[in-house]
Amino acid sequence: MKTLLLLFGLMLSNVLWAQDFLRFSGVVLDREQITPIDGTYIFNLSRNHEAVTDSLGLFSIEAQSGDTLVFRDLRYQPSTLVVPSVLQASDYGIIQLLQPSAVLLNEVKVFSFPSEEEFREAFLKVSPKTDMESRALEAKRDLMKLLKDSYKNDIYYYDMWADRRLYELTGVVQPNHFLDPFRWTELIRSFGAKDK
Questions:
Q1: How far apart are CA 66 and CA 20, in angstroms?
Q2: Which 3 state secondary structure label does DSSP give 42?
């Protein structure tokens, strides 16, 4: 009897707790052009719930009264919405307007050359600064190191992808080496080589 009463109490508290959640469905729009914004990230800071707008700017997220919803997009200024405590219904529709971020760029002067030969001659006369050459070489070295490290970290993924692609093209299934004694020998030797 006590078990049945406890079970009934847990179910009742679960139902009451679930009724506190409010569902906010709506659209995120550009404040200046009134166009939908796709890919906007909506995060409920209080509950760790999140949502992302679709290609039409539509979203749906759960919250409770007092929760803070943050709308973020790299192209726009972040916006927050605090859920008021006076809401009675369980579903609400909202329209959230985001202000575009102002990005100031340096002035670019564009001019044309009368002919292709004059352009080629002027282009070849320009020599990069020595500092720029060393920066470019350093950036290239860093990029190559990053790519090599990334490849080393993801080599198993690339091998799996190559095996899958080979199967798709030829229909030949790659053997599973899990029970292959030679592969196990190689593995044990590689651990022994690292210890020395």
A1: 11
A2: strand
**What are 96-144's pLDDT values in tens digits?**
999 998 776 788 888 788 888 888 888 888 776 667 778 888 888 888 8
pLDDT of 1 strictly over 70: no
In terms of C-beta density within 10 A (0-12 exposed, 13-18 middle, 19 or more buried), how is residue 69 classed?
buried
Q: Give the model confidence (pLDDT) of 36-87 as tens digits.
A: 999 999 999 888 888 999 989 999 999 888 889 999 998 899 999 998 888 8
Residue 36, classified by CB atoms within 10 Å of its CB into exposed (0-12), middle (13-18) or buried (19+), is: middle
DSSP string, 103-143: -----------SSHHHHHHHHHH----HHHHHHHHHHHHHH
| Angle formed by the axes of helices 130-153 and 155-170, nearest 10° | 70
